Protein backbone atom coordinates (compact mmCIF):
# COMPACT_ATOMS: atom_id res chain seq x y z
CA UNK A 1 0.00 0.00 0.00
CA UNK A 2 1.56 3.23 -1.17
CA UNK A 3 0.75 6.85 -0.43
CA UNK A 4 2.14 9.68 -2.53
CA UNK A 5 3.00 12.88 -0.68
CA UNK A 6 5.00 16.02 -1.35
CA UNK A 7 7.94 14.19 0.24
CA UNK A 8 7.63 11.25 -2.14
CA UNK A 9 6.19 7.75 -2.01
CA UNK A 10 5.35 6.24 1.38
CA UNK A 11 4.65 2.56 2.08
CA UNK A 12 2.07 2.71 4.90
CA UNK A 13 2.52 -0.89 5.96
CA UNK A 14 6.31 -0.59 6.04
CA UNK A 15 6.10 2.61 8.11
CA UNK A 16 3.76 0.94 10.64
CA UNK A 17 6.01 -2.10 10.99
CA UNK A 18 9.09 0.10 11.45
CA UNK A 19 7.31 2.03 14.19
CA UNK A 20 6.51 -1.17 16.06
CA UNK A 21 10.05 -2.49 15.79
CA UNK A 22 11.58 0.84 16.80
CA UNK A 23 9.90 0.94 20.22
CA UNK A 24 9.56 -2.77 21.05
CA UNK A 25 12.53 -2.72 23.45
CA UNK A 26 11.01 0.17 25.36
CA UNK A 27 7.62 -1.58 25.49
CA UNK A 28 9.35 -4.64 26.97
CA UNK A 29 11.09 -2.47 29.55
CA UNK A 30 7.73 -1.15 30.66
CA UNK A 31 6.17 -4.62 30.82
CA UNK A 32 7.45 -8.09 29.86
CA UNK A 33 4.25 -8.61 27.91
CA UNK A 34 5.40 -6.02 25.40
CA UNK A 35 2.88 -3.84 23.61
CA UNK A 36 -0.61 -3.44 25.06
CA UNK A 37 -2.83 -3.59 21.96
CA UNK A 38 -6.16 -1.88 22.62
CA UNK A 39 -8.60 -4.09 20.72
CA UNK A 40 -12.21 -2.97 20.26
CA UNK A 41 -13.43 -5.53 17.75
CA UNK A 42 -13.61 -3.07 14.85
CA UNK A 43 -11.74 -2.88 11.55
CA UNK A 44 -9.00 -0.59 12.87
CA UNK A 45 -8.31 -2.99 15.73
CA UNK A 46 -8.00 -5.88 13.30
CA UNK A 47 -5.57 -3.81 11.26
CA UNK A 48 -3.21 -3.10 14.16
CA UNK A 49 -3.51 -6.71 15.34
CA UNK A 50 -2.33 -8.02 11.98
CA UNK A 51 0.42 -5.40 11.77
CA UNK A 52 1.79 -6.53 15.14
CA UNK A 53 1.85 -10.10 13.85
CA UNK A 54 3.62 -9.05 10.65
CA UNK A 55 6.20 -7.08 12.63
CA UNK A 56 6.88 -10.06 14.86
CA UNK A 57 6.85 -7.90 17.99
CA UNK A 58 5.77 -9.12 21.40
CA UNK A 59 2.28 -7.90 22.17
CA UNK A 60 -0.92 -8.66 24.05
CA UNK A 61 -4.47 -8.04 22.88
CA UNK A 62 -6.70 -6.42 25.50
CA UNK A 63 -10.39 -5.53 25.34
CA UNK A 64 -12.63 -3.47 27.63
CA UNK A 65 -16.20 -4.74 27.91
CA UNK A 66 -18.59 -1.80 27.94
CA UNK A 67 -21.80 -3.80 28.64
CA UNK A 68 -23.44 -1.99 25.69
CA UNK A 69 -21.64 -3.62 22.76
CA UNK A 70 -23.67 -5.55 20.20
CA UNK A 71 -23.81 -9.32 20.82
CA UNK A 72 -22.06 -9.88 17.49
CA UNK A 73 -19.16 -7.70 18.63
CA UNK A 74 -18.85 -9.49 21.96
CA UNK A 75 -18.77 -12.89 20.26
CA UNK A 76 -16.23 -11.69 17.71
CA UNK A 77 -13.97 -10.24 20.42
CA UNK A 78 -14.08 -13.49 22.40
CA UNK A 79 -13.00 -15.35 19.26
CA UNK A 80 -9.89 -13.15 18.97
CA UNK A 81 -8.87 -11.97 22.46
CA UNK A 82 -7.87 -14.39 25.26
CA UNK A 83 -10.58 -14.52 27.91
CA UNK A 84 -8.14 -13.47 30.63
CA UNK A 85 -7.35 -10.28 28.68
CA UNK A 86 -10.93 -9.03 28.64
CA UNK A 87 -11.50 -6.33 31.27
CA UNK A 88 -14.90 -6.11 32.93
CA UNK A 89 -16.03 -2.75 34.33
CA UNK A 90 -16.84 -2.13 37.98
CA UNK A 91 -20.16 -0.62 36.97
CA UNK A 92 -22.30 -1.45 33.95
CA UNK A 93 -23.55 1.35 31.73
CA UNK A 94 -26.98 0.96 33.34
CA UNK A 95 -25.62 1.56 36.85
CA UNK A 96 -23.28 4.29 35.62
CA UNK A 97 -26.18 6.33 34.26
CA UNK A 98 -27.84 6.27 37.67
CA UNK A 99 -24.60 7.18 39.45
CA UNK A 100 -23.94 10.15 37.14
CA UNK A 101 -27.62 11.22 37.28
CA UNK A 102 -27.55 12.28 33.62
CA UNK A 103 -27.52 10.54 30.25
CA UNK A 104 -24.19 10.42 28.43
CA UNK A 105 -24.09 13.09 25.73
CA UNK A 106 -21.64 14.34 23.12
CA UNK A 107 -20.54 17.02 25.57
CA UNK A 108 -20.51 14.79 28.64
CA UNK A 109 -19.11 11.42 27.60
CA UNK A 110 -18.34 10.05 31.04
CA UNK A 111 -18.97 6.54 29.69
CA UNK A 112 -15.75 6.52 27.65
CA UNK A 113 -13.69 7.56 30.65
CA UNK A 114 -15.28 5.02 32.97
CA UNK A 115 -15.60 2.06 30.62
CA UNK A 116 -12.70 2.38 28.19
CA UNK A 117 -9.92 4.70 29.32
CA UNK A 118 -8.79 3.21 32.63
CA UNK A 119 -6.70 0.37 31.24
CA UNK A 120 -3.19 0.07 29.89
CA UNK A 121 -1.70 2.44 32.45
CA UNK A 122 2.09 2.50 32.50
CA UNK A 123 2.14 0.31 29.42
CA UNK A 124 3.13 1.03 25.82
CA UNK A 125 -0.30 1.06 24.21
CA UNK A 126 -0.96 0.51 20.51
CA UNK A 127 -4.21 1.96 19.17
CA UNK A 128 -6.05 2.13 15.86
CA UNK A 129 -6.83 5.84 16.22
CA UNK A 130 -6.89 7.58 12.82
CA UNK A 131 -7.09 11.29 12.00
CA UNK A 132 -9.64 10.57 9.26
CA UNK A 133 -12.15 9.26 11.82
CA UNK A 134 -13.23 12.62 13.21
CA UNK A 135 -12.38 16.27 13.66
CA UNK A 136 -11.57 15.60 17.33
CA UNK A 137 -8.79 13.23 16.28
CA UNK A 138 -7.37 15.38 13.50
CA UNK A 139 -4.59 16.76 15.70
CA UNK A 140 -3.43 13.40 17.06
CA UNK A 141 0.10 12.21 16.32
CA UNK A 142 1.76 8.84 15.85
CA UNK A 143 3.51 8.82 19.23
CA UNK A 144 2.22 10.33 22.48
CA UNK A 145 3.13 10.28 26.16
CA UNK A 146 0.42 11.01 28.70
CA UNK A 147 1.44 11.35 32.33
CA UNK A 148 -0.88 11.65 35.32
CA UNK A 149 -2.21 14.92 33.94
CA UNK A 150 -3.30 15.38 30.34
CA UNK A 151 -1.67 18.81 30.49
CA UNK A 152 1.65 17.02 30.54
CA UNK A 153 1.08 15.26 27.25
CA UNK A 154 4.20 15.12 25.11
CA UNK A 155 3.69 14.68 21.37
CA UNK A 156 6.30 13.60 18.86
CA UNK A 157 5.37 14.48 15.30
CA UNK A 158 7.77 12.05 13.63
CA UNK A 159 9.43 8.70 14.04
CA UNK A 160 13.08 9.52 13.49
CA UNK A 161 16.03 8.42 15.62
CA UNK A 162 16.06 11.68 17.58
CA UNK A 163 12.48 11.13 18.74
CA UNK A 164 13.30 7.53 19.63
CA UNK A 165 16.11 8.70 21.89
CA UNK A 166 13.78 11.24 23.47
CA UNK A 167 11.22 8.63 24.50
CA UNK A 168 13.87 6.18 25.68
CA UNK A 169 15.36 8.88 27.92
CA UNK A 170 11.97 9.94 29.26
CA UNK A 171 11.63 8.48 32.76
CA UNK A 172 8.25 10.06 33.51
CA UNK A 173 5.68 7.52 34.61
CA UNK A 174 2.68 7.33 32.36
CA UNK A 175 1.23 5.71 29.30
CA UNK A 176 3.05 5.70 25.99
CA UNK A 177 0.66 5.50 23.06
CA UNK A 178 1.53 4.49 19.53
CA UNK A 179 -1.27 5.45 17.14
CA UNK A 180 -0.04 2.97 14.60
CA UNK A 181 -2.23 3.81 11.60
CA UNK A 182 -2.81 7.49 12.33
CA UNK A 183 -2.44 8.52 8.63
CA UNK A 184 -4.60 5.76 7.14
CA UNK A 185 -8.04 6.37 5.68
CA UNK A 186 -10.95 3.91 5.36
CA UNK A 187 -9.85 2.71 1.94
CA UNK A 188 -6.37 1.94 3.24
CA UNK A 189 -7.83 -0.11 6.10
CA UNK A 190 -10.18 -2.16 3.93
CA UNK A 191 -7.53 -2.74 1.27
CA UNK A 192 -5.18 -4.06 3.95
CA UNK A 193 -7.78 -6.32 5.58
CA UNK A 194 -8.96 -7.70 2.24
CA UNK A 195 -5.37 -8.46 1.23
CA UNK A 196 -4.81 -10.49 4.41
CA UNK A 197 -8.21 -12.19 4.20
CA UNK A 198 -9.66 -10.69 7.37
CA UNK A 199 -13.47 -10.45 7.18
CA UNK A 200 -13.55 -8.52 10.45
CA UNK A 201 -16.61 -7.93 12.63
CA UNK A 202 -19.78 -9.38 10.99
CA UNK A 203 -21.68 -6.15 11.69
CA UNK A 204 -19.87 -4.55 8.75
CA UNK A 205 -21.72 -6.99 6.48
CA UNK A 206 -24.99 -5.82 8.07
CA UNK A 207 -24.62 -2.22 6.91
CA UNK A 208 -22.81 -0.75 9.91
CA UNK A 209 -20.10 1.80 9.16
CA UNK A 210 -18.82 1.98 12.73
CA UNK A 211 -18.52 -0.55 15.52
CA UNK A 212 -18.98 0.71 19.04
CA UNK A 213 -21.35 1.04 21.94
CA UNK A 214 -25.04 0.81 21.13
CA UNK A 215 -26.42 4.25 21.91
CA UNK A 216 -23.10 6.07 21.63
CA UNK A 217 -23.98 9.80 21.50
CA UNK A 218 -21.24 10.28 18.88
CA UNK A 219 -23.07 7.98 16.45
CA UNK A 220 -25.67 10.61 15.48
CA UNK A 221 -28.33 9.11 13.20
CA UNK A 222 -26.82 5.62 13.49
CA UNK A 223 -28.59 5.38 16.86
CA UNK A 224 -31.93 4.91 15.09
CA UNK A 225 -30.69 1.80 13.26
CA UNK A 226 -29.02 0.46 16.39
CA UNK A 227 -32.16 0.65 18.51
CA UNK A 228 -34.29 -0.76 15.69
CA UNK A 229 -31.92 -3.74 15.47
CA UNK A 230 -31.53 -4.10 19.25
CA UNK A 231 -34.80 -3.11 20.96
CA UNK A 232 -33.75 -4.81 24.21
CA UNK A 233 -31.01 -2.19 24.59
CA UNK A 234 -33.55 0.60 24.11
CA UNK A 235 -35.67 -0.91 26.89
CA UNK A 236 -32.61 -1.15 29.15
CA UNK A 237 -31.73 2.51 28.57
CA UNK A 238 -35.30 3.58 29.39
CA UNK A 239 -35.28 1.56 32.63
CA UNK A 240 -31.95 3.14 33.57
CA UNK A 241 -33.29 6.61 32.82
CA UNK A 242 -36.26 5.88 35.09
CA UNK A 243 -33.88 4.97 37.92
CA UNK A 244 -31.77 8.03 37.07
CA UNK A 245 -34.79 10.33 37.47
CA UNK A 246 -35.59 8.76 40.82
CA UNK A 247 -32.00 9.37 41.93
CA UNK A 248 -32.16 13.00 40.81
CA UNK A 249 -35.31 13.57 42.83
CA UNK A 250 -33.76 11.90 45.89
CA UNK A 251 -30.71 14.18 45.58
CA UNK A 252 -32.82 17.31 45.16
CA UNK A 253 -31.71 18.01 41.58
CA UNK A 254 -34.06 19.77 39.15
CA UNK A 255 -35.72 17.97 36.26
CA UNK A 256 -38.71 18.52 34.00
CA UNK A 257 -38.67 14.97 32.63
CA UNK A 258 -41.47 12.76 33.87
CA UNK A 259 -40.32 9.37 32.68
CA UNK A 260 -37.45 7.39 31.27
CA UNK A 261 -39.18 7.40 27.88
CA UNK A 262 -39.18 11.20 27.84
CA UNK A 263 -35.46 11.20 28.62
CA UNK A 264 -34.84 8.65 25.86
CA UNK A 265 -36.79 10.69 23.25
CA UNK A 266 -34.78 13.79 24.16
CA UNK A 267 -31.53 11.83 24.24
CA UNK A 268 -31.77 10.54 20.67
CA UNK A 269 -32.90 13.93 19.33
CA UNK A 270 -30.68 16.75 18.13
CA UNK A 271 -31.41 18.62 21.37
CA UNK A 272 -29.10 16.28 23.26
CA UNK A 273 -26.13 18.04 21.67
CA UNK A 274 -27.10 21.36 23.29
CA UNK A 275 -25.57 22.63 26.53
CA UNK A 276 -28.67 24.44 27.83
CA UNK A 277 -31.19 21.63 28.34
CA UNK A 278 -34.37 23.74 28.22
CA UNK A 279 -35.43 23.89 31.82
CA UNK A 280 -33.21 21.09 33.03
CA UNK A 281 -29.77 22.18 34.20
CA UNK A 282 -26.54 23.18 32.60
CA UNK A 283 -24.36 20.12 33.19
CA UNK A 284 -21.26 22.26 32.92
CA UNK A 285 -22.12 24.67 35.74
CA UNK A 286 -24.65 23.72 38.35
CA UNK A 287 -24.51 24.41 42.06
CA UNK A 288 -25.99 21.13 43.27
CA UNK A 289 -23.35 18.98 41.64
CA UNK A 290 -21.72 16.66 44.16
CA UNK A 291 -18.31 15.44 42.91
CA UNK A 292 -18.51 12.46 45.26
CA UNK A 293 -21.55 11.22 43.36
CA UNK A 294 -20.08 11.98 39.94
List the helices and strands and how they pair.
Layout lengths: L1 E4 L2 E4 H19 L4 E4 L4 H13 L3 E6 L6 H10 L5 E2 L5 H8 L9 H6 L8 E4 L15 E4 L7 E3 L4 H9 L5 E5 L6 H10 L26 H8 L1 H20 L9 H8 L27
Parallel strand pairs: 3-4, 3-6, 4-5, 6-9
Antiparallel strand pairs: 1-2, 7-8, 7-9
Helix pairs in contact: 1-2, 2-7, 4-9, 8-9, 9-10
Would you mind describing this structure in some detail?
- This protein is α/β, with parallel strands linked by helices and 294 residues long.
- The protein has a domain at 2-205: HUPs (Rossmann fold), CATH 3.40.50.620.
- The protein is built from ten helices and nine strands.
- The chain has helices spanning 12-30, 43-55, 71-80, 93-100, 110-115, 161-169, 186-195, 222-229, 231-250, 260-267, and strands at 2-5, 8-11, 35-38, 59-64, 86-87, 124-127, 143-146, 154-156, 175-179.
- Helix 8 crosses helix 9 (231-250).
- The longest helix has 20 residues, at 231-250.
- It is globular.
- The protein starts with a strand and ends in a 27-residue tail after the last helix.
Amino acid sequence: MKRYTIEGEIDLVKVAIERLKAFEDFALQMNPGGYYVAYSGGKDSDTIRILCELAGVKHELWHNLTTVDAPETVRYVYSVVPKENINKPELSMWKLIVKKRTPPTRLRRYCCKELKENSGRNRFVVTGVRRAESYQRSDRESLEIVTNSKKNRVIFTGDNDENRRMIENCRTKGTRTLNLIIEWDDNDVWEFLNYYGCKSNPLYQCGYKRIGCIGCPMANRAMEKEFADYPAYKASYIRSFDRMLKKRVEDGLPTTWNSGEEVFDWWISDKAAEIDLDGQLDFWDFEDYDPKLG
